[in-house]
């Protein structure tokens, strides 16, 4: 019987055709008492008979079976055994403790589930935080500024997107309603790109403000191509274009 010096992750045995152990790994020696140098001394009777039924005539390149074996720690331990035969009728056996295998799989699965749960929760928290930051940025991109008791200004900054107008609409409509404002000025001077969905949402805001105030909404500093887009929505009676905030205020205070 010869010791196999290579480090293997699982117990390994090699048997001759009579069941004598001719080669063993370090882990095999740690798992089993190999002093009798025969496989029958480390396998219970029923499992030994089961093992004998597999011979070199078996056509399967690798045979997988479960055997009850006598380990150093327990008189009966279930092992998952992978068996192959070579041309010299020698059987190579790799042995995996079944209970240990299951426990390792369960532990790995539980560990993975825990990590996934933690990752999901962290991603959820980060997404919530990001959404709050974006919402706040959108609010700051369209602040509500009271000018007089009845007049207010909503300057828009950056690109006009659906998400941004949604956020701005919520805060501005609340402020207009609570303050009973009548004259609403919306300044487009600092606006960048205008998205189609953004302009559609803006039109809804315009119409809602018109219904709430009963007055025409004054649009300031709008670029020609954006004005052309708004005109497609037939908003006569809902809004009017003005060149600058100064012009609107001068007209208002000279009435």
TrEMBL record:
SUPFAM superfamilies, A to Z:
SpoIIaa-like
Give the STAS domain ranges.
127-252
Question: Which Pfam families does the record associate with it?
Answer: STAS
Specify the superkingdom: Bacteria
Designated name of the protein: Stressosome protein rsbRB
